[in-house]
Amino acid sequence: SGYWVVVPAAGVGKRMGADRPKQYLPLLGRPLLSLTLSNILTWPGLSGIVVALSADDVHFPHLPEAKHPLVHPITGGAERADSVLAALNFLATHASEDTPVLVHDAARPCVALDDISALLSEDVSPIALLAQPASDTVKLSGVEQGCAVVEKTLDRNRIWLAQTPQRAPLGLLHSCLRRGLEQHAAITDESSALELFGHSPQLVPGRRDNIKVTHPADIVLAETILRLRYA
Ligand code: C5P
Is residue 151 in a domain? Predict the structure, then answer.
């Protein structure tokens, strides 16, 4: 029993435009990655966390969670999927193929315990992800005379926005991700790697406030969500 969590935290946070990688920006006075790791360390049944860091990361050793016995830092890769693959390469020598793995973005510090319980529930497929039904109408774009134009409108009733964690058995996720990257497929989450090889991950409705801290305004939003939750 038990499951492992993989945390890709090797990004540079280009869209944030800050002086350091976004996983180290302060939220409520604590680095974002520290909040995410301390949140994960409260999840029941956790066997360990593999954190993928950039090769030139100098901040991680200063986090209080860096010394926690369940936290294992490794070096990530050029894209998010490469970072997750590096973490799974490490895990393959520490856990069996059928071990459940939850991949969770460093940039999602606000995920709530009831969402984790829902994803780990016995009634849910072992291949599943948290996701949010779309509230906006989604347009597929084309280009006309150098401008983005609507090519078509997608059926909103079928659109979900993928969040994390996303779960799958270690062996399956490892082979789909490795083979997908070998094919140079566009892989922006674990589900997309599994879909390439015929799997249909279950969509588990998640809370709207499991936001991904991406743009500067998200910092204030995440601080408000955390302050309200733990007040
Ligand atoms: O850029 P985006 O917000 O999609 O990144 C999602 C997560 O993937 C972040 O936690 C980021 O640190 C991580 N990442 C990574 N390795 C990369 C690029 C992104 O671990 N090469």
Answer: no
CB distance 11 to ligand 1 below 6 Å: yes
Q: How many domains does the chain contain in total?
A: 1
- Atom number in ligand 1 closest to CA 8: 20
Locate the ligand 1 atom nearest the alpha carbon of residue 79 and give its number. 21
Give DSSP secondary structure letters for the chain. --EEEEEEE----GGGT-SS-GGGSEETTEEHHHHHHHHHTTSTTEEEEEEEE-TT--SGGGSGGGG-TTEEEEE--SSHHHHHHHHHHHHTTTS-TT-EEEE--TT-TT--HHHHHHHH-TTS-SSEEEEEE--SPPEEEEEETTEEEEEEE--GGG-EEEEEEEEEEHHHHHHHHHHHHHTT---SSHHHHHHTTT--PEEEE--TT-----SHHHHHHHHHHHHHHH-
**Domain around 59:** 3-131+159-230
pTM of the model: 0.96
Give the distance (Å) from ligand 1 centre to CA of residue 106: 8
| 142 within a domain of the structure (yes/no) | no
Q: Is residue 105 in contact with ligand 1, taking CB distance under 6 Å? A: yes
Q: Residue 69 domain-assigned?
A: yes
Question: Is residue 83 within 6 Å of ligand 1 at its C-beta?
Answer: yes
Q: Determine the residue of 80, 84, 90, 161 to mutate for testing ligand 1's pocket, defined as the one with the most ligand atoms within 8 A of the Cβ atom.
A: 80
Residue 136 lies in a domain: no
Mean pLDDT of successive 10-residue segments in the chain (231 residues)?
Answer: 94 80 94 98 98 96 98 97 98 97 98 98 98 96 97 97 98 98 97 98 97 94 94 73
